[in-house]
Structure formats: C-alpha cells, structure tokens
Write a structure and sequence with these properties.
Number of strands: 8
CATH superfamily of the largest domain: Alpha/Beta hydrolase fold, catalytic domain
Low-confidence stretches: none
Number of helices: 11
Oligomer: single chain
CATH topology of the largest domain: Rossmann fold
Helix content: 25-40%
Mean pLDDT: 97
CATH architecture of the largest domain: 3-Layer(aba) Sandwich
Radius of gyration: 17 Å
Structural class: alpha/beta
Length: 260
C-alpha cells in the first residue's frame, strides 16, 4: 500500500493498478480495499484506484467533526495527488454515499457514477440500525464478542439473514475495526447530501444497483435515488444470501458497462 497526506494532515492508504483509464471504487463501512479487490474483476487498461477511507485499514482518522464532505474531499485529495482530473466512480454502501456527495459537489471530476447498495439517501441511517451499530461499537471497544452476542442489537439482526448476521460479527476479526470502533458511532448518523433536490442536479450518467433482503441497504433507497436522479439507470441484483455469485457477476457487468 502507498499513502498520501490529505488537506487535514491525515495520512491515508491507497493502491493503484496499472492502466490509462482511472476508476475509483470505494469500500463500505468497516470494509477496506480488500473488500473491493475480492469483488472487482480487472478490465483491460483500467487503472483501479482504491482508498482506505478514514479509520479503515491503516488510514488515520479524525472523527471530531466528521462529515461526508470530509470523506469526499479525501477522494478529491487523492485524485489531485495522482494528477487525475476526471474519473469513473463507484462505491458500495458508505462508499456509495461518499461517491454521491463527491458527484454533487464536484461534478467536473466524475465521468460516470455507479451507486451500489445505498445505505443513505438524504437522512441518517435508520435509528434501529444505528442502535445495532452502537451495541457493536461498545462491544468492540471492550474487545468482547460475547457482549455483542448478548446485546439487543445482535438479537435484532441475527435472524434476518446469514449475510446480515456475519457482517456485524466480522469486525471482531479485523484489527482496524476493533481499534477504530468509533467509526460505527460517527458515520451512521451522518447525512451524505444537503437536500434531495441536489440529486436532481446530477447530469453525468448514473447507474444504481440495489437488492432485496438487505437490512442496512434497503431496496427502497435504490428506488428513491432512481426516481430523484434524472435519467438514471436502475438494476436489481440478487442478494448475497440468495445467489452471491450472481450478485458479484452482475455488479461487475455494471462496471464494465459503465467503463467500456
């Protein structure tokens, strides 16, 4: 991994593959560049640009006054560091929210936009999910997986789906998520855009991907974004429990469609 220093003096990790066509693909909350590397199927001559966002991987963080503006500015700082003027842009969950913020505030830097499994539109994550994240953060702080297993938050998610259950248990196996547990308190209460009206101003091509049976990424959020963003495309993919291989294949098909 390489690193650079953002405008706020934080050192952030990134990785770039060889190629002439820049493509930034942003990971979700609690994820890292590994999340994208496991999903993405390389495309000839595409330079995949990966960023460990603040508090993820070994990237530094400042959650004292965190905002999606700040997270999107980190991506702009990386583009400037790499001398990339314009890029294809995609994100999953939190990464989709960051990408959406960037596209609204810096449309001149985005060729096309792909939003995958959105967890936000114009409000914070729903309170019942934020409550789960609070229980998760408290257990991570204490390095106590059993504490989370006995919490109201875990009881809320455990029977929804295998994917949902595992997504809340996996952070206990990842050192950076145990170490930077604060992300699960800070990020879910943020809002990525100032107004839903801002979505109507997007003029670059936008594609939206959503699936059903996904607690943190409601299918309805994808539909609402599709309705608000002019001439956007919408694709439903199978959820990760029903058909994980088709889920990944269809997302990669959308990426190729966006870039080729």
């Amino acid at each position: 991994m390489e690193s650079f220093v953002n405008r706020n003096g934080l050192r952030l990790e990134y990785r770039v593959t060889a190629g002439s066509i820049p493509f930034i693909f942003l990971h979700g909350l609690g994820g890292s560049t590994l999340q994208i590397e496991k999903l993405y199927e390389p495309i000839d001559d595409v330079s995949l640009i990966l960023l460990n966002q603040e508090g993820h991987g070994n990237s530094e963080y400042n959650y004292s006054n965190l905002s999606f503006d700040q997270l999107a500015d980190d991506v702009i700082d990386l583009l400037d560091h790499l001398h990339v003027k314009k890029t294809y842009l995609a994100g999953i969950s939190m990464g989709a929210a960051v990408a959406l913020n960037l596209a609204i505030r810096h449309p001149e830097r985005v060729r096309k936009l792909l939003l995958i499994r959105n967890a936000w539109v114009d409000q914070p994550i729903r309170e019942e999910i934020r409550s789960v994240y609070r229980d998760l953060a408290d257990a991570l702080k204490n390095k106590d997986r059993e504490q989370f297993l006995n919490s109201d938050g875990y009881r809320y998610v455990r029977d929804i789906s295998e994917y949902t259950r595992n997504s809340f248990l996996k952070p206990f196996e990842e050192e950076y998520n145990v170490r930077v547990y604060e992300k699960y308190l800070a990020i879910p209460k943020l809002v990525p855009i100032r107004s839903a009206d801002d979505l109507k101003k997007l003029t670059m091509p936008v594609e939206i991907v959503a699936c059903r049976n996904d607690l943190c990424h409601p299918y309805e959020y994808g539909i609402r974004l599709h309705e608000l963003i002019p001439e956007s495309g919408f694709t439903e993919v199978p959820d990760k429990d029903t058909d994980p291989k088709a889920h990944e294949r269809m997302i990669n098909d959308m990426i190729r469609k966006m870039i080729e």
